[in-house]
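go over this chain:
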Amino acid sequence: MKPFLHDKQPETPKSALEDLLAAHADALTSGKPLALSAERLSEAEQAEAQSLMLLAERLSAELTPVTPDPAFVARLRTELLAQAPARPTLLLRWRNLPKRYKVAARIGGLTLTAGLALLASSRVLELLLRAQRRQQAKNADLSLTAVS
């Protein structure tokens, strides 16, 4: 199966600033101290990292985790399941087939395609032979009338 277009594009390498900010976010969520330092960054990047890390720390201190209401979760689940297709799509069903069924389906498709191609080519060949016979008959009639 063909991969999607965005799957073929290589990921852009992460910069040192992104690595530092990701480590800082991980440290904030886990409650552990930051393991990376900003030494590898330029002065401009260090200033940007400092302001972003300060903002993240303030947000982390002010925002409290919220647990959704069980009734809301149940209602949302019901709505999402109601919007989902009743039957799996053809592509999903094809992906879930065992490998031997896929191979058999492909062989059957190739056989059917080859048979249709043979039928079509025999019809075309038959039409070409009829046209050739008509041309030979016309040529024979011309040669007989020219002699008499």
Notes: The chain has six helices and no strands. Residues 78 and 84 are 10 Å apart (CA to CA). The radius of gyration is 36 Å.
